[in-house]
Amino acid sequence: MIKENGMRRKQCEIQSRETVTGILQRCRVGRLATSGGDGFPYITPVNYVWWNEAVYFHCAQEGEKIDNIRRSDKVCFAVDIPLAYLGLDYDRTRPACKVHQFYNSVVIRGRAEVVEDRVEKVAALNALVAAHEESESFPAITAESREVDLCSLIAVRVERMSGKSDLAQKMTAEEQKQVAKYLEQRGLPGDREAAELIGK
User: Fold this and answer.
1) Closest among 173, 128, 181, 188 to 155, alpha carbons compared
2) Mean pLDDT across the stretch 62-80?
3) Cα–Cα distance, 104 to 65 (Å, whole number)
4) What distance in Å separates the CA atoms of residue 13 and residue 4, rounded to the nearest whole number?
5) Residue of 144, 70, 51 whose CA lies nearest to 111
């Protein structure tokens, strides 16, 4: 994995490339940051697929996002998976500032390009549909398919990539055990996964 330099809380850094790519493969929507013509960052959510070591998404052939990419190919792309939320119900004696959201995330710095190669474009579009359909049983897109010419396909080629997990790393081992047990018993969406990850 090409790592991001300077993560302040090293205990939160995900060291496993397999885990980082697993997060990218699991998510379906990410946020793309480009440099706007007005000097402000411009962030948009995009449906994407992680395929062949790059992020791919399709978009209209005209618009602010693609204009920004044509002006500057330097972009940032981020995804996150919210897990359990540890609220005031866990311990009424804890201060309100101790409420906490556990999560996994990935941040990519890279170069965005409009894919012109038709073979790559067709293959990536099929990978994108397959990821969102979660099935291979759909009419395949071919080089002759009309939709290939109707959209632009963007590839974000990775230059630096980092993964971060917030899973009670700042707590003592005993506190982690108590939180994991609480989440396991509570059983809200994300609780069991968070409990398992905290307990590792």
Assistant:
1) 128
2) 96
3) 26
4) 10
5) 70
